[in-house]
Write a structure and sequence with these properties.
The chain is mainly β. It has no helices and 12 strands. Strand 10 and strand 11 form a beta hairpin.
């Protein structure tokens, strides 16, 4: 069982968007009736068999708390253009995103960069509005969140369904 609370606000006026917030207020989780097991790979070249070993259990409830994250954003939209940035400071120290979008008919072209784990990584992609209520977004972004911390390119695809209020 756990709990976490977020608080924030955004002001939007004449194309400008400014926001501030705090995430993870009272962020905690309590584990009861927990199990502790270790899995080991028998050999790298002999197949995919794991051996399981039971480990001594800590007594009582395990409580884990995470630090708060402070967030801010700034953006501007005018005509076919939108420019947006956001910043966060928390568990992984400073993180930031910045980018722009240019819309032509049913296509939106996007590009930007993100900062995390002391590295800048590029981002880019496009959105395609197939109908007024359905679209597909494809994005490419650099990351270094692997064990070697080597820069790689990842791809994300999302389907966008929009519901028009009555």
């Amino acid at each position: 069982r756990g709990i976490s609370t977020e608080f924030g606000f955004v002001v939007v006026r004449k194309g400008w968007e400014v926001g501030l917030g705090v995430e993870g207020l009272g962020n905690r989780i309590n584990w009861k009736d927990h199990k502790n097991k270790r899995f080991a790979l028998a050999g790298l070249f002999t197949g995919v068999s794991f051996t399981e070993t039971a480990l001594p259990l800590p007594s009582g409830t395990i409580r884990q708390e995470l630090p708060k994250e402070y967030v801010a954003n700034l953006g501007y939209s005018a005509g076919r253009w939108t420019v947006r940035s956001d910043w966060a400071y928390g568990l992984q120290k400073l993180g930031a995103h910045g980018g722009a979008e240019y819309r032509v008919s049913r296509v939106a072209f996007r590009g930007g960069a993100r900062y995390g784990l002391k590295k800048w990584n590029p981002t880019g992609g496009l959105g395609l509005n197939l109908t007024h209520r359905f679209g597909i977004d494809v994005g490419f972004y650099g990351n270094s969140t692997n064990m070697e911390q080597e820069r790689n390119i990842s791809m994300a695809v999302s389907l966008r369904f929009e519901h028009q209020p009555k």
